[in-house]
Amino acid sequence: MAEPHVVHLVPARFGPGGVTGGAERYAEELARAMSRRVRTTLVAFGTEERRDREGTLEIWTLGRTHFVRGEPNNPISRRLVTALRRATIVHCHQQHVVASSAAAAFCRLTGRRVFVTDLGGGGWDVSGYVRTDAWYHGHLHISEYSRRVFGHEREPRAHVILGGVDTVKFAPAPAVPRRPLVLFVGRILPHKGVDDLIRGLPAGVELLVLGSAPHEQYLRDLRALAQGKPVTFRHDADDAALVQAYREALCVVLPSVYRTMYGRTTNVPELLGQTLLEGMACGTPVIGTNVASIPEVIEDGVTGFLVPPNDPAALGQAIIKLRDDPALAARMGAAGQARVERRFTWDAVVDRCVRIYGIEGRDG
């Protein structure tokens, strides 16, 4: 019997030359971890065809890309079928894009097994007119909230695989002193609630906001709110700078909201909360709002605090508790690290995927 070959299909690479979104990072990290257990190729789209290898992971960037209706997150290429012919298992990341629907149809016609993880987003696709859920052998959700919000609570083919953290890269550094620094990491968008965090920032505490800023008006409004406060915005941090910030911070805060400062509603503000996991892996306490998937990540009162959304005062009070009680902060940081190692490693995600795929991987 031929060795299983898993292809992970994602619209774009993560990082330089690609994008910096959590969806692309999730797919790449999962594929990299899986490649240590089973032959794995990451297939993405780009402007030029190229084949790379990073350790045990094969990476194939397809050229001749066409963006459906000009949507940058909805690429397709004639080369897709060529890439998929190598696979026995295809795992699509993003359901509602043309490439995933095409991959699912191809796999069904050719006897390959195909799975999908919906990481939010999408574009024009046949799935907007015809329900394509049954085209996939399984839906692999990154949280219970994701399974619920996509209407798969009673779907036997829907599973929760969670997310992971590279616990070698993201790890505590006891020699690095903590300081009164609050850290937000993520795309700076209105539904992330950074405005509430700035409003609630206690005196004597700094705030570092790390992430890209695709919403120019929101960034301008945040800078206006931050006038006179010790708030720094940084949009170019690499992984080394990110890890250093996690290790120095008093806490990591994810203040996401359903209703933004502009009065608009976001129904799905978080499908997991990856930055909380990264902070916890570094032994840093976390604070998050009680929305979406965040309560699945934070154990309130154990690894950090859950507070109501749109409540700057509650955010400020939680930060003050950690600032004024270093022993509590240390206990919460250690509990968070243990929770990640117990539940949120990439090896654990790979174990769940391989079992659902119905294959056996090599020993890790």
Strand-helix topology:
Blueprint: E1 5-9, H1 22-34, E2 39-45, E3 50-54, E4 57-62, E5 65-67, E6 75-77, H2 80-84, E7 89-93, H3 98-110, E8 113-117, E9 138-141, H4 144-149, E10 158-160, E11 181-185, H5 194-200, E12 206-210, H6 216-225, E13 231-234, H7 239-248, E14 251-254, H8 274-281, E15 286-289, H9 294-297, E16 304-307, H10 312-324, H11 326-343, H12 346-357
Parallel strand pairs: 1-2, 1-7, 2-4, 7-8, 8-9, 9-10, 11-12, 11-14, 12-13, 14-15, 15-16
Antiparallel strand pairs: 3-4, 5-6
Helix pairs in contact: 1-12, 5-10, 8-11
3D structure, described in words:
The protein is α/β, with parallel strands linked by helices. The protein contains twelve helices and 16 strands. The chain has helices at residues 22-34, 80-84, 98-110, 144-149, 194-200, 216-225, 239-248, 274-281, 294-297, 312-324, 326-343, 346-357, and strands at 5-9, 39-45, 50-54, 57-62, 65-67, 75-77, 89-93, 113-117, 138-141, 158-160, 181-185, 206-210, 231-234, 251-254, 286-289, 304-307. It has an eight-stranded mixed beta sheet, with helices on both faces. The protein has a six-stranded parallel beta sheet with strand order 13-12-11-14-15-16, with helices on both faces. A two-stranded antiparallel ribbon has the order 5-6. β14 (251-254), α8 (274-281) and β15 (286-289) form a beta-alpha-beta unit. α8 (274-281) crosses α11 (326-343). The protein is globular.
